[in-house]
Every structure is written in structure tokens, then in C-alpha cells.
């Protein structure tokens, strides 16, 4: 027995440990896969200036943002602890772990938190309960700060430099060439800084850059001629070789000298390189005029050349003239150039410019003959380098002509030269006058049902004009806000045009780079600052470009305030009763009329309660609308309660008719019905009606007694309580009647019963119930007795009620099943009562049902939810089991020892 005791004890301890220490049941949170806008193709990469980059572009070194616009479809099940994954592009890098909160699109609450690991390719959003309870308009935005991803180079970049004379026979102009090789690297925004030796000067405008395919690369030159340093900047990213060329000119036209350059390379990718080069010029000797003597020979005379070109080949009305004087080692003392113009042109005042071989300006005086056909260009001083003169003339007329100039040179050193140039103009057919560009603007609601976002559209028609670097400035009304990143520009052929949008208060500036001859559409969005108030939203746009095209357009849209529907009258219901045959008053026609009053009747239910002296006639009910069309009607009967139900939505009045049959064919009686209407749209109504049937007067039989009218019979026993008139006595409250002692009250004989207090028994009509003897009560027929309602029962008429035994009255609880009473078989035996059974759901103190609330895990267990049992209850049950086992073991042990 002792072994059994310890066996029980061990089992009890084991069970208790399993209950207390068992792990909780965990439900893993799910990933929301129906979310839209978080895949890598939806990510938008922008730099600090708002420029958009593709997901596969090599990003210049710097900081960027990755932007998402996401949404969850309505109807998607979202729970606290669920997650969403957003994918990051491969060309960016997360420099350090990042955690941040996400706010709802309305700004009214936080929907969860996002986490990204350092160097991760995706981020995780863990949701809270906000989207679980807010099931509509679930959308938002995400902006993540990132940096460009550094690529591993194949090797260091390299740069080389060379120099050569433009004309080896005249070493007065040098070509410098720089070659940059990326060696697998990306060259982003290269910068080349070049330092010249002091015996040369950079030739303005001579720089040129090309890629490996010979395509020109935009390059800008800046620097100080005094310090002999120039900086060349190239914009963009390149993975091929880059060639940079430019020129310098020696400060001295002749003489032995060495010219060198030192160049350094840097770019945004951190690459560096350097290169240098030099070139020599030998000293020049003049051969003797007579061989074998030291007398110098004659110098070559100066030379002059002249050229001409159209300032604008498409508009042949202005000419550029150029005169080049080559000194050939001679000194040019106070040079003077006389130019004779043909009569079909006119000199442009102030257009003359004279420079030396280094590009330095030389002061030049211009005088003109009285007829304007001769020009004299004069300079003061002595010059030992070439001189270059440029000026302009305008043409007269528009026909085919030849324009020529004859120029002569002379100076105080006796140098002379002349040159001629001419140019022809062919007849160019005049182009038809083009219509100016036009711009139209339109606006529409993004969602007509949710008037909080506007779609704006600008349609620009080129009309044959060239649109060069268009700029559109759009001024919004102050009650709206531009949606960042919403601007899109597309040509008529479907090509996307890069557009940069900048918002400054209520002004938005859209800039497009390039030249376009096609029409294009510009679209963008704004959001309204208020949700449902009446307002007008207007925008005025102005277009301009570098080809001097101009246009303007405006548009507006109104939003009406949300209309509040006027209050509707509630529905109403009336009821009427009539005999089917006035000569045979055994069947009654009942009519229920429901008036909708413009309300919607959704799944109507009418509950009709009959008095207990009539019975529903099966299949007699039908329902019609106000046009007389039959409506599908479902009828169910439970005792004296008839339920009429209609499935669907109705907006018209309806009528329900049906019949009942009296339980007795004759006799005075009142037949009444009480109906209650409800539906799924919250409508309620009630109606009642009744109809009387008088008694049929028949000759009295000798010795018979007419039944007394209700309420007229006096109690027979002296000293007994007078019966109260119906409706004058306050109903007793349930549970307030003191039960009489069993056996102290004799059952009353038929015809002598005291009337019961109002509110305890439904009155029966006189003559309808035979008085029974104690213990021999006949059961009532089903469906003929009205169920009792607390406080509403009329007192029975004297002489018609079965005697009640003392102590059998049970107070009625409205939410409990009425107790049943079994009468004793002997007059003095007490009645037995079956206690009432409470309904499944008891009302609480606030009128709500005590339905157990579903278990909700405590917050802080994201992303998983806990569903383990109540540990406190388990502990108590285990302890009770342990005590029980110990007691049983102890008793067994005592029994064994005896």
C-alpha cells in the first residue's frame, strides 16, 4: 500500500508540473502578400535634388532616398503582428541598421514599425492593431535614406598625356591630348586640373571631350590665365575611355623653348590619376643672303587671309567676316585694315574685335566712309604676333545674291597685304507661318467617390515648333498640396520625357531638358487640404522655353459639401380585422399595412401574437407591394405566435393578409392580435386590432343560469377579499408574494374561488372552463392559453379558476423560462415546482449580454500571438488534484496499517 501511495504522489506531482511548466501554444504571425507597391520595381530612387534614377543605374557616390507608395486591398485579413516585406534595389546600400515608425496616410495613428539590417536587400514592417480595425483606405508611403553602392574596381584607372604642334612648320600653336582609361571602373563627373608652364596661354574655346565611340561629352573650362591653371569638368558617368583635347599658344612667336603641362584627375567615385607632357621648339636661324657671308637674308613678307560665314545658316541675314594677318616674323607697327563692302550689306556698329595670337584683345578704332561702303580698322602700337580681326554686316533684301569684301593692309613698318572673300545666298523658300504652340489644361477626381485627390493634365501642342528646354510654372490655389513624385511627361509617340518638379508653397515648377517637336502631356496630382467641405480647386499654368514659345492655361474643379439627407419619417404599420362571412363568424380576415415612408425595408420580420381563442389558417397568408405584385413570404407558427419574414430590400409600401379561425363556433368573445415589425435597417413599428363576436341569445332552459359577465360576480364567502377590477390593481412584483404555509388553506370549491390578484393569471371567458376538483385538473389544450407576461395579466373571473395550492407561486423572471407547477393528487398535499432555467445569455448590469470575449493576447508579443491556457487556473486545478491524491493515499495507508 505504501508503494501505491508514493505512486499516486509521483503521478500527482508529474501532472502538476506538466500543467504549470507546459509551454504556451504559439500562433505564428503571417506575411501580408497581397500588399501592392513594395516590390523592387516599385521602388523610386531619388538624389538630393529630386532626380530619379533607375534601379539598375550606376549611382554616383552620395546619399539617396528610396520611395514606395503601398496599399493593401480592402477585405484583406490583417492582424496585429503581421508583417510586410519591402524589397530594396541592388544599386544602393544600407550603411547601418535602421528602425522607424510608419504613420497612416491620414496621419491619425501609427500603423507599425519598420526594420532594415545593415547591408540588407529588404526591410520588414511589423503591423500593430491599427490596420486590423481600420479596414478601408489602407495605404501609405515609405522613404528610406540610403547611399550609393560602391563597386569593386577591376584595377586603378590610368591617364596619359601627349603634345604636338598644330603646324610643325609654324610652331606657334600646341595640341594637348589627355587619355583616361577606367580599367573596369565607373568614371562619375570627372575633373581634370591642368597647370601650364608660364611661357604659354590656353586658347579659349579649344577644349573638346569624346568617349571611346567618338561621341562628344559635355565639358566646361574654367580657370585663371594669370596662374596658368585650367580646370575641365565633365558631367555624367562613363565606363569607356575618355579623350580630352585643347590648345595653348606660346607667348613668343619664335625662339627655342620648352613647353610643359602637368594634369591631375579626380571624380566622385574617389578615383585619382596624374600625367604630364612637354614639347620643345628649336631656335630659328635666317640663312645668309649670300652663302659664305654673315649678312642676314630678307624676311618673308606678311600675309593676310579673309573668310566669311553666315551668323545663322537658317536665317541668312547676318554675316561674320574674319581677317587673319600673319606677321611672318615682321613687326606690325600701327596696323591699318581697309575693307570695301559690296552695296548689299551694312556694317553692324560695335561688332569689330581685334585680338593677338594669345587671344588678348587689342584696342581697335573703326571709321566709316560717307556712303558706308568702306571701313577702316586702326590699331596703335607695335605687334610681334599674328592679328585676328572679326566683324559683322547685315544683308539687304531676301533674294539670291553674292556678298563680297575686299580688304587691304598697311602699317608704318612698310608691310602691305590684301585679301578678298565672298559668299552666295540662294533663294530660300519662305516657310509658311507656323501657329504658336498651345496648351490646354484639364482636371478630374482620382476617385469620384473619395474626393481628396486630383489628377491634373497639361496638353502641350507644338504645332510644328521646336520646344527647347521647356519650363512650366503652375500656380495652385492655396487649398491643395502637390503630391511629390507624381509628375509624368509623355510625348505623343509614348516616349517618356525626363521631368524635374519642384514645389515652393503653392507654385510648382516643371523643367524638361532637350528639344522636342512632338506634342506631349504633363500629368501630376494634388491632394485637397480638407476632406468633405465645399471648395473650388484651381491651377494656372504658364509655359515658356528657350525657343521663345509661350502659352498659358488654367482649369478648376468644384467639390460640393457632403449632403446630409433630411430626416425621414419612421415607418408605420396599421392592422385591421373583418369577418370573412358576417353570417358565419368563425373565420377572420386580418390585414397588416406597412408604410415605408421612403425608408429601406431590409429583410422585414413581423411577429403577430394571437389571442388564445383563435387559430391561424394554414397557407392563408400573402404579401403584396403597393402595385399589387406578390412578394415572397415565409410564414412560421409557434403556438399563438405567427412570424412573417421577407428576404431582400424593399422601398415600397406592402400589405400582408391572412386568416384565423375561432376555436369555438359561437359565443361572445373578443379576438385580438398584436403585431411587431423589425428589419435589418433598424426600422420598428407595432400595431394591434381586435374584433368582437356577440353571444347568440337562446331561450333559457329551466333551472339554468346565465353566465355572469366578467367582473360582476361577487365572492360568496363572507369576509373574503373583493376582486379588484381589471386594470385598477397594481401587479405584484415577482418575488414579493409571501407563500402561505402548506396545508393551511382549503382548496376552494368550484364557483367559490377568490379571484386571483391581477398580473398572475390570464382571464378566461366565463363558461369556457369547467371547474376542476383538486388533483383532477384537466390539461389545457395546446395553443389555447396565452403565455403569461409579468405585470400585464388581467385577473380571472370568479368561478372559473382552478384552486391554487399555497406556496406554489413563483415570481417570474423575464429572462428565465417560466417554472411549471405540478398539482398534488390529494387536496392537502403541497404542489411541487420545477425551478426555472436561466437563458443561455444573462443580461449584465449595462444591458449587454455576458458573452465571453475572445481571448486577446497582450501587446508586445509581436510578431507572434500567445494562445496558452490560464496558468493561474491550471495551478489551482493541479493543487486540488495533488491534495485529493494525498488524502486518498493517506486514507489507504491508514486502512492498511489497521
Task: Provide structural commentary.
- The chain is mainly beta and 898 residues long.
- The chain folds into 6 domains: 1-25 and 868-898; 30-148, Sandwich (Immunoglobulin-like); 158-280, Immunoglobulin-like; 303-425, Immunoglobulin-like (Sandwich), CATH 2.60.40.740; 438-559, Immunoglobulin-like (Sandwich); 572-693, Immunoglobulin-like.
- It has 3 helices and 63 strands.
- The strands form 16 sheets. Strands 23, 24, 27, 28, 29 and 33 form a 6-stranded antiparallel beta sheet that branches.
- Strand 21 and strand 22 form a beta hairpin.
- Helix 1 packs antiparallel against helix 3.
- The longest helix has 27 residues, at 871-897.
- The radius of gyration is 55 Å and the shape is elongated.
Amino acid at each position: 500500500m505504501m508503494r501505491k501511495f508514493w505512486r499516486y504522489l509521483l503521478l500527482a506531482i508529474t501532472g502538476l508540473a506538466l500543467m504549470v511548466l507546459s509551454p504556451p501554444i504559439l500562433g505564428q504571425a503571417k506575411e501580408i502578400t497581397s500588399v501592392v507597391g513594395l516590390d523592387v520595381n516599385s521602388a523610386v530612387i531619388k538624389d538630393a535634388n529630386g532626380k530619379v534614377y533607375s534601379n539598375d543605374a550606376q549611382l554616383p557616390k552620395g546619399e539617396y532616398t528610396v520611395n514606395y507608395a503601398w496599399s493593401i486591398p480592402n477585405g484583406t485579413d490583417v492582424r496585429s503582428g503581421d508583417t510586410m516585406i519591402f524589397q530594396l534595389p541592388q544599386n544602393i546600400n544600407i550603411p547601418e541598421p535602421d528602425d522607424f515608425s510608419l504613420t497612416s496616410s491620414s496621419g491619425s495613428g501609427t500603423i507599425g514599425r519598420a526594420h532594415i539590417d545593415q547591408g540588407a536587400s529588404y526591410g520588414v514592417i511589423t503591423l500593430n492593431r491599427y490596420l486590423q480595425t481600420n479596414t478601408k483606405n489602407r495605404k501609405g508611403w515609405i522613404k528610406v535614406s540610403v547611399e550609393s553602392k560602391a563597386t569593386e574596381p577591376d584595377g586603378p584607372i590610368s591617364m596619359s598625356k601627349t603634345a604636338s604642334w598644330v603646324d610643325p612648320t609654324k610652331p606657334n600653336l600646341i595640341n594637348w591630348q589627355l587619355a583616361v582609361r577606367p580599367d573596369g571602373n565607373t568614371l562619375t563627373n570627372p575633373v581634370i586640373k591642368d597647370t601650364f608652364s608660364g611661357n604659354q596661354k590656353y586658347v579659349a574655346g579649344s577644349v573638346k571631350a569624346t568617349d571611346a565611340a567618338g561621341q562628344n561629352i559635355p565639358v566646361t573650362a574654367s580657370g585663371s590665365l594669370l596662374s596658368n591653371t585650367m580646370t575641365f569638368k565633365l558631367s555624367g558617368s562613363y565606363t569607356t575611355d575618355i579623350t580630352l583635347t585643347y590648345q595653348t599658344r606660346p607667348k613668343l612667336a619664335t625662339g627655342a623653348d620648352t613647353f610643359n603641362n602637368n594634369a591631375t584627375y579626380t571624380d566622385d567615385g574617389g578615383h585619382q590619376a596624374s600625367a604630364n607632357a612637354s614639347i620643345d621648339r628649336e631656335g630659328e636661324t635666317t640663312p645668309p643672303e649670300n652663302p659664305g657671308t654673315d649678312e642676314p637674308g630678307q624676311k618673308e613678307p606678311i600675309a593676310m587671309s579673309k573668310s566669311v560665314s553666315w551668323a545663322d545658316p537658317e536665317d541668312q541675314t547676318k554675316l561674320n567676316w574674319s581677317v587673319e594677318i600673319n606677321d611672318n616674323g615682321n613687326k606690325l607697327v600701327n596696323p591699318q585694315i581697309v575693307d570695301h563692302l559690296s552695296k548689299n550689306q551694312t556694317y553692324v556698329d560695335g561688332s569689330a574685335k581685334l585680338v593677338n595670337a594669345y587671344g588678348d584683345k587689342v584696342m581697335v578704332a573703326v571709321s566709316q566712309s560717307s556712303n558706308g561702303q568702306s571701313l577702316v580698322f586702326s590699331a596703335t602700337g607695335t605687334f610681334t604676333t599674328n592679328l585676328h580681326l572679326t566683324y559683322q554686316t547685315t544683308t539687304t533684301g531676301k533674294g539670291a545674291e553674292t556678298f563680297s569684301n575686299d580688304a587691304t593692309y598697311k602699317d608704318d613698318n612698310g608691310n602691305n597685304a590684301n585679301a578678298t572673300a565672298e559668299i552666295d545666298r540662294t533663294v530660300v523658300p519662305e516657310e509658311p507661318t507656323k501657329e504658336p504652340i498651345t496648351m490646354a489644361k484639364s482636371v478630374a477626381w482620382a476617385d469620384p467617390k473619395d474626393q481628396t485627390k486630383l489628377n491634373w493634365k497639361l496638353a502641350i501642342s507644338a504645332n510644328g515648333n521646336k520646344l527647347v528646354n521647356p519650363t512650366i510654372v503652375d500656380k495652385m490655389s492655396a487649398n491643395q498640396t502637390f503630391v511629390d513624385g507624381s509628375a509624368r511627361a509623355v510625348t505623343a509617340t509614348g516616349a517618356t520625357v525626363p521631368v524635374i518638379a519642384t514645389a515652393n508653397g503653392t507654385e510648382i515648377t516643371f523643367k524638361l531638358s532637350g528639344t522636342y517637336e512632338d506634342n506631349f502631356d504633363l500629368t501630376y496630382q494634388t491632394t485637397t487640404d480638407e476632406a468633405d467641405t465645399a471648395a473650388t480647386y484651381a491651377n494656372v499654368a504658364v509655359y515658356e522655353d528657350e525657343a521663345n514659345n509661350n502659352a498659358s492655361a488654367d482649369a478648376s474643379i468644384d467639390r460640393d459639401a457632403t449632403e446630409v439627407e433630411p430626416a425621414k419619417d419612421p415607418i408605420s404599420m396599421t392592422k385591421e380585422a373583418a369577418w370573412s362571412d358576417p353570417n358565419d363568424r368563425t373565420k377572420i380576415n386580418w390585414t397588416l399595412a406597412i408604410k415605408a415612408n421612403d425608408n429601406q425595408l431590409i429583410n422585414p420580420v413581423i411577429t403577430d401574437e394571437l389571442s388564445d381563442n383563435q387559430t391561424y389558417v394554414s397557407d392563408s397568408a400573402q404579401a403584396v407591394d403597393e402595385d399589387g405584385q406578390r412578394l415572397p413570404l415565409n410564414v412560421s407558427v409557434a403556438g399563438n405566435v405567427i412570424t412573417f419574414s421577407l428576404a431582400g430590400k424593399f422601398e415600397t409600401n406592402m400589405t400582408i393578409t391572412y386568416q384565423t379561425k375561432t376555436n369555438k363556433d359561437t359565443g361572445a368573445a373578443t379576438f385580438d392580435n398584436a403585431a411587431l415589425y423589425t428589419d435589418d435597417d433598424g426600422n420598428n413599428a407595432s400595431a394591434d386590432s381586435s374584433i368582437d363576436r356577440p353571444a347568440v341569445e337562446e331561450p333559457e332552459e329551466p333551472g339554468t343560469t346565465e353566465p355572469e359577465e366578467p367582473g360582476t360576480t361577487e365572492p360568496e364567502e363572507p369576509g373574503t377579499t373583493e376582486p379588484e377590477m381589471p386594470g385598477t390593481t397594481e401587479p405584484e412584483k415577482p418575488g414579493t408574494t409571501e407563500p402561505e404555509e402548506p396545508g393551511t388553506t382549503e382548496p376552494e370549491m368550484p364557483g367559490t374561488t377568490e379571484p386571483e390578484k391581477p398580473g398572475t393569471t390570464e382571464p378566461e371567458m366565463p363558461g369556457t372552463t369547467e371547474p376542476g376538483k383538486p388533483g383532477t385538473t384537466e390539461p389545457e389544450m395546446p395553443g389555447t392559453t396565452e403565455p403569461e407576461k409579468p405585470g400585464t395579466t388581467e385577473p380571472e373571473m370568479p368561478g372559473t379558476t382552478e384552486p391554487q395550492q399555497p406556496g406554489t407561486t413563483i415570481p417570474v423572471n423575464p429572462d428565465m423560462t417560466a417554472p411549471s407547477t405540478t398539482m398534488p393528487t390529494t387536496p392537502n398535499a403541497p404542489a411541487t415546482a420545477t425551478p426555472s432555467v436561466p437563458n443561455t445569455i444573462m443580461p449584465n448590469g449595462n444591458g449587454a449580454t455576458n458573452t465571453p470575449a475572445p481571448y486577446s493576447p497582450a501587446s508586445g508579443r509581436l510578431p507572434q500571438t500567445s494562445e496558452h491556457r490560464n496558468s493561474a487556473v491550471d495551478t489551482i486545478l493541479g493543487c486540488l488534484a495533488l491534495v485529493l491524491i494525498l488524502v486518498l493515499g493517506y486514507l489507504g495507508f491508514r486502512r492498511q496499517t489497521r
